[in-house]
Amino acid sequence: MFREARRQIANAWKYISTDYLHATQIPTFVLEPALNLSRLIHILQEDDFTDSQNFLKDTITLLFVDFVNSASRG
């Protein structure tokens, strides 16, 4: 049952990514905050919180700060 849940989650992320990359009716700048929030929630749910302070800081930096910096350069 656990493997099946993991498989369904992986497939859902594939569908989300595909839909985001091929969005035509809704601009991606509208979809991006929802996608980023769902990514953050997914990562936080998988964290075992053994070193959560550093993990959380690094994760937020990778997801939001570094992403914005690289996107603005392109």
Automatic annotation (TrEMBL):
InterPro entries: Isoprenoid_synthase_dom_sf
Record protein name field: Sesquiterpene synthase
Organism expressing this protein natively: Solanum commersonii (Commerson's wild potato)
